[in-house]
Amino acid sequence: MWFQTATFYEIPVHAFYDSNGDGVGDLAGIHEKLDYLEWLGVDCLWLLPFYPSPMADGGYDVSDLTGVAEEFGTLDDLRALLDAIHARGMYAMADVIVNHTSDQHPWFQAARQPGSPSRDWYVWSETPERYGDARVIFVDTQDSNWAWDEVAGAYYWHRFYAEQPDLNFDNPDVREAVKNVVRFWLDMGFDGLRMDAIPYLYEREGTICENLPETHAFLKELRAMIDGEYEDRIMLAEANQLPAEVVAYLGDGDECHMAYHFPVMPPLYMALRREDASDIVTALEATPEIPAGSQWGVFLRNHDELTLEMVTEEDRQFMYEQYAPDPAMRKNIGIRRRLMPLLANERSQFELLHGVLLSLPGSPFLYYGDEIGMGDEYLLRDRDGVRTPMQWKGEPGAGFSTADPDRFYIPLVTDPDYAPEVVNVESQQADEGSLLRWVRTLLADRSRLPVLGNGSFALIDTGDPAVLGYRRTNDEADLTVLANFATTPRVVSLAAPMTEVRTGRSLGETIELPGHAFSWLAEHTGAI
Ligand code: NOJ
User: Fold this and answer.
1) I want to staple 434 with a disulfide (CB 3.0 to 4.6 A). Which of 23, 276, 373, 428 is the partner?
2) Which one from 196, 210, 370, 382 is the annotated catalytic residue?
3) Those residues with Cβ within 8 angstroms of residue 241's Cβ, 6 or more apart along the chain or in another chain
4) Is 196 designated active site?
5) What is the percentage of the chain residues whose pLDDT exceeds 70?
6) What average pLDDT does range 121-133 have in this prediction?
7) 454-523: CATH superfamily
8) Catalytic hit among 203, 238, 377, 464
């Protein structure tokens, strides 16, 4: 159950640290930075796709599902990295991207040949009319889920870029091949697998081609295989869906171990600007119970746009007005900005959201660079603006690479408020009062409170819509969390005299929360 109390940290391999001076981050670079990650106090490193890829979709277009991209290193580098991660008592997670492959994958190249015996490894049609009820996801660049292939003389199905044909899960050979991909990475030593784009595995006419029973059945089969052949490995569902549909990916404890809690993410941002936590309460009330032995993954930001696909039209417009006033900040149905710029560089908002994120039911996922308040370059292609090189030092090249910055795979942030001279690890490590040091302390506090990972959850009515309140309880601890989403101070009555667990401050029966403040509290008699 390590994943129930772990903190996850998301790393795009090309963005973290370049060990060989070619301008691209690599596996050996992550290896060199393990001291930092251990010092920070994260438990599980989620490595974004490191597979050979033409990079039409940031590496989610894979041309070899069991290889390592040359610019990132070798399988041996990966083995060495995994050993080093495990030697520190940490865990590692990889993406399994099997809804689709790259169109350069040998499977697709074979399938498209006229008369190919493996034609039905992918999904073909003579007309682009089939499965017309399925939505297009990458609305900025795709107007159909079908693309014409000259060689095959047919249309093929793709839920993402046209360079990413969908595999045909009705074909038993595909299912077997996918199982072997999963085995390959578990044999390599990964502790967890993030199942990318999992709602879209199967297609059926007359449906939206998402969350189909066949998809759940296959995931259960995969889970049974993993449980039967391995110990202590987990599957995480990436399913950007409404609460009832997301929770289905946890099955009855027999499907994925974890699922991202997409539904609660946009409300955290809405609450800040509305100075009213009701949207968060609504999202949490709509969240069904999850089976024992499973866990949510909660997050504020990741390598994608801040998705607004599942919110109402009114909330979407509100989010755009508040957080993406420049249309260039919008991508598909979402916002391609990083956390700190979304929060107008205001530390109190950052702290508030982390105080909530790290105490909500679920295991938190942090996005590299957010711990130092990195900025973005939203004018860059696609979502590259939130994937810029990690800022280690305040020098040209940001301590990311010795290559000429002109050769970096993605340029550094140039915005003067967020440039490496202003925002970097080195200066924040040296400064006791820095954001980085604050995040590190909060992570350490959290790791002393397993109740935040495995405790039950109950909302509290604080009597003030601006103040979110809830309790986390297990056999050892009973923790109360209060979070003030208003900019002005609020006074909240407590059920009993309490102690602030992070500061040791003793309180009577009320607490005054300054604007954008949060507090983790326990009754004086509590064991914490
Ligand atoms: C979800 C990934 O997070 C995203 O980056 C990618 O574009 C799609 N899945 C397609 O693989």
Assistant:
1) 428
2) 196
3) 199, 210, 211, 262, 310
4) yes
5) 99
6) 98
7) Golgi alpha-mannosidase II (2.60.40.1180)
8) 238
